[in-house]
């Protein structure tokens, strides 16, 4: 797992403080393990990370059906009654996921997520794993 895990807390808090309506932020590995979180409880963050692994796989499968696509998921947005879910590729084998209420400024949130990924994307990576161990 990422060595600087504790250092992500302030960066995630900065995102939450800069955009009203954010309920939870999770950084996760491609295989669904939580790397860092802000807001919500740890169990909810773990469940969200696990669900995101399946969602990014599904999004990648859909992307392969789009002509000229590289097959890589860049961003998924889901709107439901009560709020939004955003997931963005955030580095090699890592993703940034945000749950937000319906009052969130959707454009501002996606822009700030993109800024965060650009700023620290090289640090938001998770090495591939085999049998639960980093390779």
Automatic annotation (TrEMBL):
Organism: Streptomyces himalayensis subsp. aureolus
Swiss-Prot/TrEMBL keywords: Membrane, Transmembrane, Transmembrane helix
Database matches in Pfam families: Robl_LC7
SMART domains reported for this sequence: Robl_LC7
Span of domain Roadblock/LAMTOR2: 9-100
Cited Gene3D superfamilies: Dynein light chain 2a, cytoplasmic
Sequence intervals crossing the membrane: 83-104
Name under which the protein is recorded: Roadblock/LC7 domain-containing protein
